[in-house]
Design brief:
single chain; 64% helix; mainly alpha
Length: 121
């Protein structure tokens, strides 16, 4: 693994580690599912609304650790370098996770961003 790639991967995993333990997972998940919340990812992750911190870290880790062949199979039709695709997917997952944890904590700013996208049209 290239050193720059490794540093970016470690920074993403550190952001997950910094997340607090989630509370009110079901309440937030139910509300998000009613809104059909679907964060922008290169490839969707099943059960994202109820994902645990450990499962999110494992999803990001497994994405970052894919070899080139796995990356091409996982992201069919993506026209970019496999390493870049893995980093983008991992980064999008971490950002979605950070937002999700804000929603679970009933953070008004987090809900404002969701409401702006899904309810205020």
């Amino acid at each position: 693994m290239k050193e720059a790639y490794k540093e970016k991967a470690e920074a993403l995993l550190a952001r997950i580690e910094a997340l607090p333990e989630a509370e009110d997972i079901e309440w937030a998940a139910d509300r998000l599912e009613r809104m059909n919340w679907n964060p922008e990812l290169l490839k969707d992750v099943n059960g994202l609304t109820r994902i645990s911190k450990n499962a999110l870290a494992e999803e990001v880790r497994s994405t970052l650790e894919m070899n080139e062949e796995e990356t091409v199979r996982f992201f069919p039709g993506i026209s970019m370098e496999p390493e870049k695709a893995r980093l983008i997917q991992a980064s999008l997952l971490v950002s979605a996770g950070e937002l999700l944890w804000g929603l679970r904590a009933d953070n008004p700013e987090a809900w404002d961003s969701i409401n702006e996208l899904y309810e205020d049209d």
